[in-house]
């Protein structure tokens, strides 16, 4: 059975990094500072999801073929969700697309 979010853990809808909601609020997402989650609990809920399946952990993402396959090779070492449910708001999605950033979140009806 695939690993699922426990409710305390959340995955960033931009990069899929898994942290607790309090960690996202305390420090923001280290891969996605442009999401401005630091010190903003509402923004944390908008930019993360507690509904995810599967986890891949990477200690040296730049050297890992699994990290490259999962598109996390340029992110910090950590645990990442393989599949998420949820999506960023339209304005944030457009800003990411204009910046050439790959969006990992999936629509709610997927």
What features would you describe in this structure?
By secondary structure, this protein is α+β, with helices and mostly antiparallel strands. Helices cover 25% and strands 21% of the residues. A hairpin with a 5-residue loop joins strand 1 (9-12) and strand 2. The model has no long low-confidence stretch (mean pLDDT 86). It is found in: Chromosome, Centromere; Nucleus.
Whole-Å distance between the termini? 19 Å
What is the CATH class name? Alpha Beta
> What is the percent of helical residues?
25-40%
- Radius of gyration using CA atoms only: 13 Å
Mean pLDDT: 86
Count of DSSP-assigned helices: 4
Second-tier CATH architecture: 2-Layer Sandwich
Order of helices and strands: EEHHEEHEH
Sheet with the most strands, sense and barrel status: 3 strands, antiparallel
Q: Assign the CATH topology.
A: Herpes Virus-1
Beta-strand portion reads 15-25%
What overall geometry do the principal axes of the alpha carbons give?
Answer: globular
**Widest sheet: strand ordering:** 2-1-3
Strand element count: 5
Assembly form of the protein: single chain
Kindly give the count of domains.
1
């Amino acid at each position: 059975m695939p690993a699922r979010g426990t409710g305390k853990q959340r995955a960033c809808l931009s990069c899929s990094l898994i942290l607790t909601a309090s960690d996202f609020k305390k420090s923001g997402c280290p891969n996605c500072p442009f999401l401005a989650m630091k010190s903003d609990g509402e923004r944390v809920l908008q930019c993360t999801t507690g509904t995810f399946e599967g986890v891949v952990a990477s200690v040296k993402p730049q050297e890992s073929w699994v990290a490259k396959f999962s598109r996390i090779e340029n992110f910090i070492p950590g645990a990442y969700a393989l599949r998420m449910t949820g999506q960023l708001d339209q304005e944030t999605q457009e800003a990411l697309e204009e910046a050439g950033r790959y969006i990992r979140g999936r629509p709610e009806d997927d």
